[in-house]
Here is the input.
Amino acid sequence: MSIFVETQRDTASRARCGKLLLGRGEVPTPAFMPVGTAASIKGVEAETLEHFGYRLLLCNTYHLALRPGAELIAQLGGLHRFMGWEGNILTDSGGYQVFSLAALRKITEQGVTFRSHLDGSLVELTPERAVEIQRALGSDIMMALDVCPPHDACPEEQLRACRLTTAWAERCLAARERMGGGLLFGIIQGGTNLEMRRRHLEQIAALPFAGLALGGLSVGEDTSSMYRVLEDIGPLMDPGRPHYLMGVGRMADILQAVSCGIDMFDCVLPTRNGRHGQLFTWEGEINIRKATFQSDDRSPVEGCRCPTCRRYSRAYLRHLFQAGEMLGPRLATLHNLFFFAEFMAEIRHQIASGNFTPWAKALLSKYPSSSISSTQSN
Here is the structure.
């Protein structure tokens, strides 16, 4: 049985509305997942995220396995109880660390061997272990272990990454069949090589995954190359399964990906940029630390209904950052998370009303794609 139900589609693009049928409640799509690498959306409690309308968060297998440990979390009732979150949780398998911790790891046919970034101890992550950890955490959606090479990897390295990712995908499915656990998504690699991407999509889509994810994008390649992959691969993805673009969170990139049929996103931009004083708006970004806001008594983002903008001024928010008060990053983060929830809700509304394509084009004219670089690390 499919976990995805498509409800409406844009007539001028492949953008679609739908819902994920998950154990802890339905998730309307397109959906954005805030990132809680260490079981925490930095500075924001679960009740607030629920109030903003989030129903699905992302946490990280690799980091939680190192600290505090998956077994301890399991003993304490699982990740949902541990972090006080009643919604759904997707866990990244740790495959991104294959990319980000290149100096500390070794890839073999068996799996990946890491040197812990915490204490230097040796850690082995195999497909089976990745499933075991995610099962212990109690993930609603588990990701298959993959190899994510850098964008400028040679064709031979990209091909090896695809081959290992497929082999590991089969082992992850077998482990999940044996152990049980949450739904399992497969990951498609291939860099910006369209032929390689198509071949790998065929391999992963042939396997009984609940969802399909595009990995290996937003890892240093130029924006036009990523868009070319989305435009080519998006129409080829199984419409009966959810499509997840991993680690992408710029507004322009989300709009482009949605137009290509992508349903799910995650990124640290709302929280990370908020901690540095950057507020997202419908007109672009505001750096609240600028001196021009020193005596500005207006709301940080006029017209916004978030808790920050309803109560506080630009001058006060700037003062908090200048004084090093922890309330400043928290208030900016609250605004950004509220804004991203509103942004995704508006995308769904525009698709449902049949106006997505002209609306997205008009918004993009105000919000250039070069404004912020996306990242998968928080």
Remarks:
- The radius of gyration is 20 Å.
